[in-house]
Amino acid sequence: MKGKVADCGDNLCVEERRLAVIKDSMLDEEIFLDVADTFQVLSEPTRVKIVFVLAEAGELCVHHIATLLNMSPSAVSHQLRLLRNMRLVKTRKEAQHVYYSLSDGHIVQLFRQCLEHIEE
């Protein structure tokens, strides 16, 4: 026997049991905020371009990123700082040079899946 169906105004649409399962699986509010913050950081085209070049190159210094994007190194550094604060990029220091790369494969996967979605 099926569960009781929830009333959506004039329509009976979803079993109450299914709604309860979904409600029980809701994540903590902090996780939703972190996800929203991540998408907000990626809502700026320059930062998306930086993610793209790092996904393609693997690792670059500020100078090379700035050259690729036709921007000043200080403007790129500012954007990288925001990406780093959100743990989307990481750094590696070698002598006096700092190299940037994406934090992990999840960032590349998220970026590529978004591209696939856009290109459909």
From TrEMBL:
<dbReference type="InterPro" id="IPR036390">
    <property type="entry name" value="WH_DNA-bd_sf"/>
</dbReference>
<keyword id="KW-0805">Transcription regulation</keyword>
<keyword id="KW-0238">DNA-binding</keyword>
<dbReference type="GO" id="GO:0003700">
    <property type="term" value="F:DNA-binding transcription factor activity"/>
</dbReference>
<keyword id="KW-0804">Transcription</keyword>
<feature type="domain" description="HTH arsR-type">
    <location>
        <begin position="27"/>
        <end position="120"/>
    </location>
</feature>
<dbReference type="GO" id="GO:0003677">
    <property type="term" value="F:DNA binding"/>
</dbReference>
<dbReference type="InterPro" id="IPR011991">
    <property type="entry name" value="ArsR-like_HTH"/>
</dbReference>
<dbReference type="Pfam" id="PF01022">
    <property type="entry name" value="HTH_5"/>
</dbReference>
<dbReference type="InterPro" id="IPR036388">
    <property type="entry name" value="WH-like_DNA-bd_sf"/>
</dbReference>
<protein>
    <submittedName>
        <fullName>DNA-binding transcriptional regulator, ArsR family</fullName>
    </submittedName>
</protein>
<dbReference type="InterPro" id="IPR001845">
    <property type="entry name" value="HTH_ArsR_DNA-bd_dom"/>
</dbReference>
<dbReference type="InterPro" id="IPR051011">
    <property type="entry name" value="Metal_resp_trans_reg"/>
</dbReference>
